[in-house]
Amino acid sequence: MRSLLLLLLLALSACSSTAENKPSPPPIVAAGTPVELRVMVDSGGTTFKDKAGADYQVGPVALVLARFTKIEAGFAEAGGHHVQLELPSDDAAKFAKFTEENVGKRIAFVVKNMVVTAPTLQSAITGGSIEISGGFTAADAGTIADTIRRG
């Protein structure tokens, strides 16, 4: 009986040390509706509106983002209000390729045929961490984050 108890304790301690050393992946948040990324065009595209009614000419869907590890509005002293998105590693690789090919272009984030935001892509984003900024108020940043989160 004593050897059985010792064997059980050894087995349990081996399991717990393996689990302690392995970091758990960040939780995945599914967007309420997938976010379409579309490059803005001068003509010949599809016209979508934003919540204020402004028109945007956009090209075809270039990338769809439906999973995030982080979606939040925030404030940085140097950058003002912004929206922070983080992607799981498989989507981060696709997003990196997309951004490398489209530096300097305006990218429309479209949810349910509405432009949520359309920032100019300043540089390639290879780490999967996206910061969208552009003179947002706290309410604007919160609305963008909520729209991406809920659809």
List the helices and strands and how they pair.
Elements: H1 2-21, E1 29-40, E2 46-50, E3 55-68, E4 70-76, E5 80-86, H2 89-101, E6 107-111, E7 114-117, E8 129-136, H3 138-150
Parallel strand pairs: 2-7
Antiparallel strand pairs: 1-3, 1-6, 2-3, 4-5, 5-8, 6-7
Key features?
151 residues; alpha+beta; Gyrase A, domain 2; five-stranded mixed barrel; three-stranded antiparallel beta sheet; globular; disordered N terminus
| Share in helix | 25-40%
Count of structural domains: 1
The topology string of helices and strands comes to: HEEEEEHEEEH
Largest sheet: 5 strands, mixed, barrel
Q: Would you report the number of β strands?
A: 8
Strand content of the residues, in percent? 35-45%
Number of helices: 3
Using only CA atoms, what is the Rg? 21 Å
What spatial order of strands do you see in the largest sheet?
1-3-2-7-6
Low-confidence stretches: 1-19
What is the CATH T-level topology? Gyrase A, domain 2
Distance between the termini: 59 Å
* Backbone structural class: alpha+beta
CATH secondary-structure class? Alpha Beta
Shape: globular
Tell me what you see in this structure.
The chain is an alpha+beta fold. The chain has a single domain (25-150), classed as Gyrase A, domain 2. The protein contains 3 helices and 8 strands; from the N terminus they run H-E-E-E-E-E-H-E-E-E-H. The strands form 2 sheets. Strands 1-3-2-7-6 form a 5-stranded mixed barrel. Strands 4-5-8 form a 3-stranded antiparallel β-sheet, covered by helices on one side. The longest helix has 20 residues, at 2-21.
